[in-house]
UniProtKB/TrEMBL annotation:
<keyword id="KW-0597">Phosphoprotein</keyword>
<dbReference type="GO" id="GO:0005978">
    <property type="term" value="P:glycogen biosynthetic process"/>
</dbReference>
<dbReference type="GO" id="GO:0004373">
    <property type="term" value="F:alpha-1,4-glucan glucosyltransferase (UDP-glucose donor) activity"/>
</dbReference>
<comment type="function">
    <text>Transfers the glycosyl residue from UDP-Glc to the non-reducing end of alpha-1,4-glucan.</text>
</comment>
<keyword id="KW-0320">Glycogen biosynthesis</keyword>
<protein>
    <recommendedName>
        <fullName>Glycogen [starch] synthase</fullName>
        <ecNumber>2.4.1.11</ecNumber>
    </recommendedName>
</protein>
<dbReference type="Pfam" id="PF05693">
    <property type="entry name" value="Glycogen_syn"/>
</dbReference>
<comment type="subunit">
    <text>Part of the GYS1-GYG1 complex, a heterooctamer composed of a tetramer of GYS1 and 2 dimers of GYG1, where each GYS1 protomer binds to one GYG1 subunit (via GYG1 C-terminus); the GYS1 tetramer may dissociate from GYG1 dimers to continue glycogen polymerization on its own.</text>
</comment>
<comment type="pathway">
    <text>Glycan biosynthesis; glycogen biosynthesis.</text>
</comment>
<keyword id="KW-0328">Glycosyltransferase</keyword>
<dbReference type="GO" id="GO:0005737">
    <property type="term" value="C:cytoplasm"/>
</dbReference>
<comment type="function">
    <text>Glycogen synthase participates in the glycogen biosynthetic process along with glycogenin and glycogen branching enzyme. Extends the primer composed of a few glucose units formed by glycogenin by adding new glucose units to it. In this context, glycogen synthase transfers the glycosyl residue from UDP-Glc to the non-reducing end of alpha-1,4-glucan.</text>
</comment>
<keyword id="KW-0808">Transferase</keyword>
<dbReference type="InterPro" id="IPR008631">
    <property type="entry name" value="Glycogen_synth"/>
</dbReference>
<keyword id="KW-0021">Allosteric enzyme</keyword>
<comment type="similarity">
    <text>Belongs to the glycosyltransferase 3 family.</text>
</comment>
């Protein structure tokens, strides 16, 4: 989706024109992002879903570059020796110079090569590199911003990697470096500052200032042309991050973003119009029949029901067959992601269900990672009690079945009154007593580090949804990404989505929005808004009465002040 080309940066030399024709096999693509093999937000999904096609097109000359996170590498990456001799010499040279660089295959579809940089190993260079950044680029990074410090280390190590690769090549290589977001953007700025012969692409998936302004309850879209950008960034103590992001956008040979609404935002906040809008995509699995969606939904729903049985033990006074599972998921940004709107809607829904004496129960899941120190003891106990009840039922069933079998063997109908003896009743009574509970089922599945100031928990306290027996709407806050290895809810995110009935994403700030897109391809209904990139895309391209996009009150005009 090309836009009118904006002026490229011409004041920085170093990129020779590629006028001569060359074989694509001679070109090398480095894709650089903080979320390579490191799930933080949506960029992880962006890279993961396009890795197979990119690897097929570029073959052995496609390398993803990201940070080394040991816990992720143990489960996601197969470490191997580099097959590219130039890259092997590059990594060996850097490792002998005080760096720690790892090479391997990311165990996702397509198995792309990954170069993982241990930024902590070179933390001793941080002060030197920050001084160099200030002297050469005029960007100062405060000591207390750990994320920005990581971006400095990652940026300098990335440009070191690219520069060393050029130095180790017998002939000048044709290198394309694609940088995602501000965390990787400093590497792009340094490529231009050091005049490396590298073609650079910068993709912003959201703007820093836009995210912060929307979270601050300002009328963002109607005032987008009026903000004093330097002052707003300074007031929020992100001026240094904003400088890195804006410098990357202006230094890139090609600047792209993921949706039309973010393109407008980038033009006003970063002062450069994107050259292209590249909407995010998903690998859609083709099903041979509709009933496959139904079968997968039924299987996943049963697993969620098992979790609910344990979570609400002692208060399971509702019919699970008349229970609807709703969810919201994503980065924990309370108002940006629409969690405030969702909670308010749940409070009103609870009132309507109660006054109409409905027998339907709604369970709303909030899957948003936050700071915790462990699982909630009461939540773990619930799953243990559920398992104990299941084991008890299996034991009694086996004893019952054995007596039934022996009775039928001798040709007699069983005496039902003798099929269960006193020991069986004792076992069952003990199991029932174990389900007694003196407190309400917990709202949160984990122990929150900042419980008193947590926005979701504070809103729940305000609206009074405490999972009581009288409430027809129940809330479960799971402040951690879902995983099939979790002892609490052992499901991958995809399985969980398939088991739900509705995804609710009333976002105020959502540059794209993978969550409703994932629901769509999995056959699960979802609610989106016209302030999300995906919502705008659906509104523009899908002429289907079954597709409804929630209209936000402060939707931006197509041209906030001046036309493109």
């Amino acid at each position: 989706m090309p836009l009118a080309r904006s002026l490229s940066v011409t004041s920085l030399s170093g990129m020779e024109d590629w006028d001569e024709e060359f074989d694509l096999e001679d070109a090398v693509l480095f894709e650089i992002a903080w979320e390579v093999a490191n799930k933080v937000g949506g960029i992880y999904t962006v890279i993961q879903t396009k890795a197979r096609l990119t690897a097929e097109e570029w073959g052995e000359n496609y390398f993803l570059v990201g940070p080394y996170v040991e816990s992720n590498v143990r489960t996601q990456v197969e470490l191997i020796e580099p097959t590219n001799p130039v890259l092997k010499r590059t990594i060996d040279k850097m490792n002998s110079s005080g760096c720690k660089i790892y090479f391997g295959r990311w165990l996702i579809e397509g198995s792309p090569y990954v170069i993982l940089i241990d930024v902590a190993y070179t933390a001793w260079s941080l002060d030197t590199w920050k001084s160099e950044l200030w002297e050469n680029c005029g960007i100062g990074v405060p000591w207390f911003d750990r994320e920005a410090n990581d971006s400095v280390l990652f940026g300098f190590l990335t440009v070191w990697l690219l520069g060393e690769y050029i130095a180790q090549s017998a002939e000048p290589p044709h290198i394309v470096a694609h940088f995602h977001e501000w965390l990787a953007g400093l590497g792009l700025v340094l490529c231009r500052q050091r005049q490396l012969s590298v073609a650079t692409v910068f993709t912003t998936h959201a703007t820093l200032l836009g995210r912060y302004l929307c979270a601050g309850n300002v009328d963002f879209y109607n005032r987008i042309s009026e903000f004093n950008l330097d002052k707003e960034a300074g007031d929020r103590q992100i001026y240094h991050r904003y400088c890195i992001e804006r410098a990357a956008a202006h230094c890139a040979h090609v600047f792209t973003t993921v949706s039309q609404i973010t393109a407008i935002e980038a033009e006003y906040l970063l002062k450069r119009k994107p050259d292209f809008v590249t909407p995010n995509g998903l690998n859609v699995k083709k099903f041979s029949a509709v009933h496959e969606f139904q079968n997968l939904h039924a299987q996943s729903k049963n697993r969620i029901q098992e979790f609910v049985r344990g979570h609400f033990y002692g208060h399971l006074d509702f019919n699970l067959d008349k229970c609807l599972f709703l969810f919201i998921a994503g980065r924990y940004e309370f108002s940006n992601k629409g969690a405030d709107v969702f909670l308010e809607a749940l409070a009103r829904l609870n009132y309507l269900l109660r006054v109409n004496h409905s027998d339907v129960t709604v369970i709303a899941f909030f899957i948003m990672p936050a700071r915790t120190n462990n699982f909630n003891v009461e939540t773990l106990k619930g799953q243990a009690v559920r398992k104990q009840l299941w084991d008890t039922a299996q034991t009694v069933k086996e004893r019952f079945g054995k007596k039934l079998y022996e009775s039928l063997l001798v040709g007699q109908l069983p005496d039902v009154s003798k099929m269960l003896d006193k020991e069986d009743f004792t076992i069952m009574k003990r199991a029932i007593f174990a389900t007694q509970r003196q407190c309400q089922p917990p709202i949160c599945t984990h122990n929150m580090l900042e419980d008193s100031s947590d926005p979701i928990l504070n809103c729940v306290r305000r609206i009074g949804l405490f999972n009581s027996s009288a409430d027809r709407v129940k809330i479960i806050f799971h402040p951690e990404f879902l995983s099939s290895t979790s002892p609490l809810l052992p499901m991958d995110y995809e399985e969980f989505v398939r088991g739900c009935h509705l995804g609710v994403f009333p976002s105020y700030y959502e540059p794209w929005g993978y969550t409703p897109a994932e629901c769509t391809v999995m056959g699960i209904p979802s609610v989106s808004t016209n302030l999300s990139g995906f919502g705008c895309f659906m509104e523009e391209h899908i002429a289907d009465p079954s597709a409804y996009v929630l209209q936000a009150e402060s939707a931006p005009a197509d041209h906030p002040e001046e036309p493109y």
